Amino acid sequence: MADLFTVNKSPFEKNSLENAIKFSTEGASILLIEDGVYGASKGTACESMITGAAGKKFYALKSDLKARGIADDRLIDGVEVVDYAGFVELVCSTDKTQAWL
Amino acid sequence: MSDIKKFMYLNRRAPYGTIYAWESLEVVLIGAAFDQEVSLMFADDGVYQLVKGCDTSESDMKNFMPTYRTLGDYGVRYMYVDQASLEARGLTADDLIEVAWEDWETEEEVDNIVEVVDSAKVTELMAESDVVFSF
Amino acid sequence: MSDTINVDGKEFAVDEEGYLANINDWVPGVADVMSKQDELELTDEHWDIIKFLREYYEEYQIAPAIRVLTKAVAKNLGKDKGNSKYLYGLFPYGPGKQACRYAGLPKPTGCV
Fold this sequence. Notes:
Chain A is of the alpha/beta class. Chain A contains 4 helices and 5 strands. In chain A, 29% of the residues lie in helices and 20% in strands.
């Protein structure tokens, strides 16, 4: 089992996502929340952070995607949308949670 | 006789994660009473403030996206969007809301005052503003 | 701790200035009770403005500034109503504050 990393900052403004990917172990789960969900959109200058990360699983919180007008068809392939219950499940099913701000 | 100054509100933050976007909007709404020439510039993550289709019903946050559409009534004449910032985020002008403007005296109307401009134009517009408020 | 007003036997929370705490709670009876407290009798002309404010909020999610309200009323309800003399005649405490309060809206942004 590996850790869950939550990232709540826009990848265009802060390096939280980039470095969470860099420092996390193989099999880590990375959940994008709040402004972090901008990192889940495809066709952006930051897309390669996620598409180029091997061995990590990416999630994005549904309510935050909706609030920011990011429709499912704009998401990078492989990013899984979770609701609050899914968030809790991730927390419970991983070793520990690290909040990257 | 030129008491009218060019005010520019520069918006560089995403709408919900921080309070900047809402604060800027409130200042614009209040500042309308001063009758200046007001333009808004959206660059970097600020371009996300104009993305349409936002729904905050599951987030327990106020959706202030509709409020941008009344800015024409509050004396805002120009809303510029930096093209490079849009492109870096995989967005185009079609992803943005439209804001109408009307001069109540002359009844001159503009369907949409949101305009995508290149970086050179952004520089020029900032330089020619008398005051730039940055959020 | 917070104040309430009683409308048809139901309590509605209001803030320290008497504005409805939750805009979604609003029913027409709220305006009736508030206007009675101000000793003002609501006519169809008052209701036109209250209804207009509700619609404006619904569309733009803010209470309009007085000058925006005036211009918008002129456009939608006619120039004879879209002026501050007419609006102050209806709402002597100020169309921005008083009418918004009756309509269940927050105090207009920038209104002190």
